[in-house]
Amino acid sequence: MKVLVPVKRVIDANVKVRVKADQTGVELTNVKMAMNPFCEIAVEEAVRMKEAGTATEVIVVSAGAQQAQETIRTGLAMGADRGILILSEASLEPLAVAKLLKAVVEKESADMVLMGKQAIDGDNNQTGQMLAALLGWPQGTFVSKIEKADGGLKVTREVDGGLENVALKLPAVVTVDLRLNQPRYASLPNIMKAKKKQIDTMTPEDLGVDASPRLTVLKVVEPPARKAGVKVADVAELIDKLKNEAKVI
Ligand code: AMP
């Protein structure tokens, strides 16, 4: 089974994000970038499937600027076999990414796409669902467990009310949640080995996809600063403040 893992380069989860002075977006200059944490979980799972003999090849693919190659190398150092960079300097919306991924899936004849449920920069949570719809494939989203079942997969989804088990026929799209696994750190020898692994570069034009944006960002602003809390002496004072100051009860 050939598994494709789309990975996105985002601002490192530990960095405090700042809005640009002109309010057109967030500051990216000299900011530490990393692989989206949910994509790391997807790579880890794909590599485990390879180690277990369920997957035959794991391909990491990223769409973005040239630097997205670093993110692909991280996936290769974790154990993926090869990478694909879809080079685009323009900002890519989920629908454009889904169309690009569809083209790669078809080009590679992949049997499964294992991806993050969400990228922590745009928090869109759209790409996997759109990709499944474009391909006409079944989808398992917010997945915290994956098992190989007869002719397909059995996945456990994290839903509001608890856990839901779903049987999927292959080929399928699976988007992963936080509790699926704990991604490994790449060892130094594997980082060195990853430098020699193949990364093919292509453009949206090569894939026959119009990736131009359809949305316009009007303005990006910081969330309002939270007011400092106050300590209350007793329950009576708390009730009084909730009633008369916050007016929530
Ligand atoms: P989103 O729908 O933007 O929240 O992203 C969900 C998932 O789609 C991510 O975790 C990635 O697996 C994939 N994805 C989104 N954008 C890209 C991109 N530019 N390149 C590769 N994969 C992406």
The tally of strands reads 11
Q: What portion of residues is helical?
A: 25-40%
Spans with pLDDT under 50 lasting ≥5 residues?
A: none
When the domains are counted, the total is 1
The SS-based structural class is: alpha/beta
CATH class identity: Alpha Beta
Summarize the structure.
A hairpin with a 2-residue loop joins β7 and β8.
Describe the 3D structure.
- With 249 residues, the chain is α/β, with parallel strands linked by helices.
- It has a single domain, classed as HUPs (Rossmann fold, 3-Layer(aba) Sandwich).
- Helix content is 27%, strand content 27%.
- It is built from six helices and eleven strands.
- The protein has helices spanning 37-51, 68-78, 94-108, 127-135, 188-194, 235-244, and strands at 2-6, 9-11, 33-35, 57-64, 82-87, 112-116, 139-149, 152-159, 162-169, 172-176, 199-202.
- Strands 9-8-7-10-6-1-4-5-11 form a nine-stranded mixed β-sheet, sandwiched between helices.
- Strand 8 (152-159) and strand 9 (162-169) form a beta hairpin.
- Helix 2 (68-78) crosses helix 5 and helix 3 crosses helix 4 (127-135).
- The longest helix has 15 residues, at 37-51.
- The protein is globular and about 65 Å long.
- The protein starts with a strand and ends in a 5-residue tail after the last helix.
- 35% of the residues are buried.
- It binds adenosine monophosphate (AMP).
- Adenosine monophosphate (AMP) binds at residues 6-8, 36, 38-39, 62-64, 92, 94, 97, 115-116, 118-119, 122, 124-128.
